[in-house]
Specification:
Distance between the termini: 78 Å
Radius of gyration: 37 Å
Strand content: 15-25%
Largest sheet: 6 strands, mixed
CATH superfamily of the largest domain: Gamma-adaptin ear (GAE) domain
Oligomer: single chain
Length: 689
């Protein structure tokens, strides 16, 4: 039949409805449904690939016109049967596991001949159709439930005692079929299951950066006050080599917001950068101090006393063997790419830096904890990397039990001649198990005395317990670092591996006695959480920070010289002026602003050794521009940190002043870290207040 023949049929009168034609059409539809119910040529997923734009019977009408097998009488009958067909179509459209195909021409003719012989009552036929549709719906529901049950039964389960290997590779499917299958599975799952990761690489579980109601926790410490030298001439504190604050500040600024003031620790901002201070010549002299006095850039009447310390840089042949335990948080919140995947990549890089004789073990913790890798020599690198690859995220955070397991493993493999250290990588808090900070602190202190140290690598944001991480690292003779990017993980674990893992001096304390004849007031920038009592300086039982191989540490005091026009603290009206706490040595110390003392222990010693240096006028520079680039850059970083903290002592110092001071002082910048600092200052300048 040609199109011309079809056009001629349009002029024919429409025949009246006939019961026989109507019954034949209905029977044909039911027969087609029953014959194609098993979807013999469907996609592998058994999901119906229908259009979401134009669902319904319109496509069927166009198909009939193209196939040229519809007669005028049949068209009329199909119009009568359209409500039933539409109901079936709508039912099928909502079922994700059915595929309905149009019957072939011969099938249609055969069904029409068979239906002509049946001729049941129309109401009876509609009843049968309804029953069949209901039965089909029930069958589809059973099929869907069986598919989901099968998927759940075959899914890998995270063991509490061991990291689970990734699921075996599945046979390749056509791309469209795979998309349909994933979509059907997603629609059948409850919302609580979406995003769960059971093993292998993290996927699908994405947490946004928390901008508003952040649950990050930081130690709230008041900024160091200005002190009168005559009343309180001695300042004592422990060194701090942590760098976590800088990376956290960078993450916030790159997200377009200013960091919480409590997250900014001035000493960690300064010590994030390496400085080219003079180094000691032998390991017997573990570090060497360098002091420079310069005018303050934010208060013309004051001066800054810049104290730089550099540790002895161990040669490769002098480095002790490393006995490391990686303690990895594998809870569900670690799934995003900036958390567990970042940690795994960072540890892979660290493994590449270790010697073949070094030892690595791997402990994981989530809802429970377990040993994922027994102590293994770096010479078996492939075994270590395979264990890292198997890590997946899921469950709550039983961090305390993980620490206990890690210490048990470290003790079982303890080597007195080696560096025995646990490296904890986590994004948050310990919300299951031994959760009291005091209990954890006590445990870590006991293990530190036994010779097992603890370092922290923090990742992620939104639930990061910086306060706890600082406490654990400080009491574990370790470093608290924070990695917001893979490049930062490389810096901490690769570039600074020697300084992070191998101490050249422990319990390092600094004490400065200021000369009241020359200095009326002073203030230490930062180190609020590292303050010590004056009597702690000579007490070898009091713990303090460590210096690693080649590490640099910087501390900056702001002092007000005697005779300055403006002081921060006025003398009392009704009381006699404060008398010096000790007699002033007028003759020999007339050129001394103060006296620096450092006390530390060698790595295997229990008794500290003192070192001292007078802070004299000979160390002063007439202008800040005359100081070394490292001194100027460290001063700029200190000013930036004080701005972020909202310090009231800056007297109009601005972000533009930071840029003007730091820009010319960048010096050699092989990794672009100082240039990045300038960009962060610009971001802080434009960030909403």
């Amino acid at each position: 039949m040609t199109n011309k023949d079809l056009d001629s049929l349009n002029s024919l009168p429409v025949p009246p409805p006939r019961d026989a034609a109507k019954s034949a059409a209905l029977s044909a539809a039911l027969a087609a449904f029953e014959k194609t119910e098993v979807a013999p040529q469907a996609s592998a997923s058994n999901v119906r690939p229908i259009s979401e734009v134009q669902p319904g019977p319109r496509r069927s009408i166009m198909t009939i016109a193209r196939q040229h097998y519809a007669l005028a009488a049949s068209l009329a009958a199909l119009v009568v049967a359209a409500p039933v067909a539409f109901q079936i179509s709508q039912s099928e459209r909502d079922a994700p596991f059915e595929i309905v195909r149009a019957p072939a021409v011969e099938e249609y003719k055969t069904a029409t001949r068979e239906s002509a012989q049946l001729k049941p009552d129309a109401d009876e036929k509609r009843k049968i159709a309804s029953e069949m549709i209901a039965a089909a719906d029930a069958e589809r529901q059973r099929e869907a439930e069986s598919v989901i049950a099968a998927k759940r039964a075959s899914a890998p389960v995270q063991s509490a005692d061991l990291a689970v290997p990734p699921p075996p590779p599945m046979a390749a499917k056509p791309a469209v079929s795979g998309l349909i299958e994933r979509d059907a599975t997603r629609r059948m799952q409850p919302w609580s299951n979406l995003g769960a990761v059971s093993g292998g690489e993290s996927m699908g579980y994405v947490l946004p950066d928390v901008v508003g109601d952040s649950r990050d926790r930081f130690t709230t410490a008041d900024q160091n006050p200005i002190k009168q030298t005559a009343a309180d001439p001695v300042s004592t504190f422990s060194i701090d080599v942590d760098t976590a604050a800088y990376a956290f500040v960078r993450r916030a600024l790159n997200a377009g917001r200013l960091p919480p003031q409590a997250s900014v620790r001035t000493e960690e901002m300064i010590n994030y950068f390496s400085y080219d201070y003079p180094a000691p010549e032998t390991a017997a002299e573990p570090f060497k101090p360098t002091v420079t006095v310069v005018p303050s850039p934010w208060n013309a009447a004051n001066k800054l006393v810049h104290i730089g310390i550099r540790g002895y840089d161990l040669k490769s042949t002098e480095r002790p063997r490393a006995n490391l335990v990686f303690l990895i948080d594998t809870s569900g919140s670690m799934a995003p790419q900036d958390r567990l995947p970042l940690v795994k990549n960072g540890l892979r890089m660290l493994v590449d830096e270790l010697k073949p004789d070094d030892t690595v073990a791997l402990v994981t913790y989530a809802s429970g904890s377990g040993i994922a890798l027994e102590p293994t020599k770096i010479s078996e690198k492939s075994k270590i990397l395979a264990a890292l690859d198997r890590l997946g995220a899921g469950g709550s955070t039983a961090g305390a039990s993980g620490i206990e397991d890690a210490y048990r493993l470290a003790e079982a493999n303890f080597d007195k001649s080696a560096v025995n250290r646990i490296i904890l990588a986590t994004d948050g808090d310990f919300n299951v198990g031994l959760t009291e900070d005091g209990d954890l602190k006590s445990l870590i202190e006991r293990k530190r005395v036994a010779g097992i140290f603890l370092s922290i690598l923090g990742v992620g944001a939104g639930n990061y317990n910086d306060r706890l991480m600082q406490t654990l690292a400080q009491n574990g003779n370790g470093v608290a670092a924070y990695a917001d990017t893979l490049n930062e993980a490389r810096k901490v674990l690769v570039e600074e591996a020697s300084s992070t893992l191998f101490p050249i001096a422990k319990d390092v304390k600094i004490q400065v006695e200021w000369n009241p004849a020359r200095v009326s007031e002073y203030r230490l920038l930062g180190y609020e959480t590292r303050a010590l009592k004056r009597e702690d300086f000579n007490n070898d039982k009091v713990d303090a920070g460590d210096i690693g191989s080649g590490h640099t540490v910087t501390a900056i005091y702001e002092i007000t010289p005697v005779g300055a026009e403006k002081k921060s603290v006025d003398d009392l009206r009704y009381a006699a002026p404060a008398k010096p706490a000790a007699p002033v040595i007028a003759a020999s110390a007339s050129n001394e602003l103060g006296f620096l003392k450092i006390r530390a222990k060698l790595p295997n010693a229990e008794t500290s050794t003192p070192l001292s240096l007078a802070i004299t006028d000979a160390l002063a520079k007439p202008a800040l521009a005359d100081a070394a680039p490292d001194v100027r850059f460290a001063t700029a970083v200190a000013g930036f940190a004080e701005l972020l903290r909202g310090s009231p002592h800056l007297s109009g110092f601005t972000y533009d002043d930071v840029l003007a001071l730091a820009g010319p002082a960048r010096g050699e910048d092989p990794f672009g870290e100082r240039s990045e600092f300038l960009n962060l200052v610009r971001l802080a300048k434009s960030a909403p207040r």
